[in-house]
Amino acid sequence: MIKQDSCDNISLITLSQASGGGNTLHSFTVDKPKNFQSAFRELRSFVDRSSDKGVKLDGDERSGTLFASGVVGDYVVGSESIEITIRKKPAMIPNKMVENEIRKMFRMFS
User: Fold this and answer.
1) Spatial separation of the C-alpha atoms in residues 80 and 56, rounded to whole Å
2) Which terminal residue of the chain has fewer beta carbons within 10 Å of its beta carbon, N or C?
3) Residue 98 CB: number of other CB atoms within 10 A?
4) Which own/partner contact pairs does 83-87 have at CB distance under 8 Å and 24+ positions apart?
């Protein structure tokens, strides 16, 4: 399924949105915070406080899925970085905007 995003770029919306397929929209890495365990606890607390706004985190300090504002993203924690894969997002929101917000969130908890 192909949609036009707000930047006049053609973007491939995941087949999973249309038919349950497994293609990804956008992947990137962020630096793993020096004190990752503490940062993860803070993130978990933030998510718990925001659950009434539709924010949800399914996972642990190794991997999981984050849900927020129509965005679904998976994360896998490596030794020095965290791989983020956005699987679903509203078509009118550019990938870079979602990435920037996630990067900002990780800086908050670093």
Assistant:
1) 24
2) N
3) 22
4) 83/27, 83/28, 83/29, 84/27, 84/28, 84/29, 84/30, 85/24, 85/26, 85/27, 86/24, 86/25, 86/26, 86/27, 87/14, 87/16, 87/24, 87/25
Encoded tokens for 44:
């978990």
- The model's pTM: 0.74
pLDDT tens digits for 2-61? 333 433 333 333 333 333 444 568 999 999 999 999 999 999 999 999 989 989 999 999
d(C-alpha 103, C-alpha 29), whole Å: 9
